[in-house]
Design goal:
Chain lengths: ~140, ~140
């Protein structure tokens, strides 16, 4: 799998968000009162030997709104982040909400029975083992 | 004319620096220098308080610092590197790392001596009480 470092599209998106914040005074305007309609969690993927660890940033999400699927060499993480109910008058709304589904293709087949998923402090940690290859082939 | 008018110019200067910094990437297409990232913010006001919500998934409580000073509520801290896999190499890295900071300049009726903070499921919630209008009005006696 081709390693991906800084994604220039993500950087430009972040830059746009920072530009937006820079030019706005917090209470001077009420722009941005609609929650960003799409949510795509940030994902880190780490591999070591025969194991892969996927870290997904899903702040404020409940376990039942997340699902993890493993098939062949693909891990799919999907869910829906419900928009927060905010009290009072809105001045700024940047925390995104919405449904998402992200799939990652690892370089090898994975063992679905080995999936472990843990949600803690808004971080989903998924670990999957590589599927053990079929028995040794004896060379006669 | 100095004073308030050069403040937006200074902010544009900050923006220019940020553009240059984002574009100045080394051969592996990484930012040349790490800058503090900004967690997304929701900001609301009821009659009684200002409420600030920040997304900080996976950041432990002890790595977050919230301070109030001269009308500014500031949250800063650091998100640690992910651990848990010995000898791992990163195939993808999207989660922001390192220092973060987010400040909100609150209106004058914010009572920064009365701030409560709560962290749950990676969301930091700060509540700042608002002073009642009567109590912030001061009568000034004019002498001869």
């Amino acid at each position: 799998m081709r390693p991906s470092w800084a994604d220039p599209t993500a950087d430009l998106f972040r830059l746009r968000e920072q530009l937006y914040r820079l030019l706005d005074d917090s209470f001077a305007s009420q722009q941005g009162v609609e929650a960003p309609r799409s949510f795509s969690p940030n994902v880190d993927i780490l591999t070591a030997d025969d194991q892969v660890l996927i870290l997904v940033g899903v702040p404020g999400m409940a376990r039942e709104d997340l699902s993890v699927q493993v098939e062949a060499s693909v891990v799919t993480i999907s869910g829906e982040r419900k928009p927060a109910t905010l009290e009072g008058r809105l001045y700024r709304r940047e925390r995104p909400a919405g449904a998402f589904s992200r799939s990652f293709s690892l370089g090898y087949d994975l063992d679905p029975d080995s999936v472990e998923a843990k949600l803690e402090d808004g971080l989903l940690r998924v670990s999957v083992q590589r599927k053990p290859s079929g028995g040794r082939i004896e060379v006669r | 004319m100095r004073g308030r008018t050069d403040y937006p110019l200074r902010r544009l200067g900050d923006l220019r620096d940020m553009v240059l910094q984002t574009l100045a990437m080394d051969r592996r297409r990484r930012p040349a220098r790490a800058e503090a990232w900004q967690p997304p913010l929701d900001l609301t006001a009821t009659d009684d308080e200002y409420v600030m919500l920040l997304d900080l998934p996976g950041v432990p409580r002890e790595q977050i610092e919230a301070t109030a000073h001269e009308g500014v509520l500031r949250v800063r801290g650091s998100s640690e590197r992910p651990e848990g896999l010995a000898g791992a190499r990163a195939v993808r890295r999207e989660r922001p790392r390192g220092q973060f900071v987010r400040s909100v300049h609150l209106p004058t009726d914010a009572d920064l001596t009365s701030v409560s903070a709560r962290l749950a499921d990676g969301v930091l919630e700060l509540r700042v009480a608002r002073r009642r209008p009567e109590s912030s009005r001061i009568e000034i006696e004019i002498g001869q």
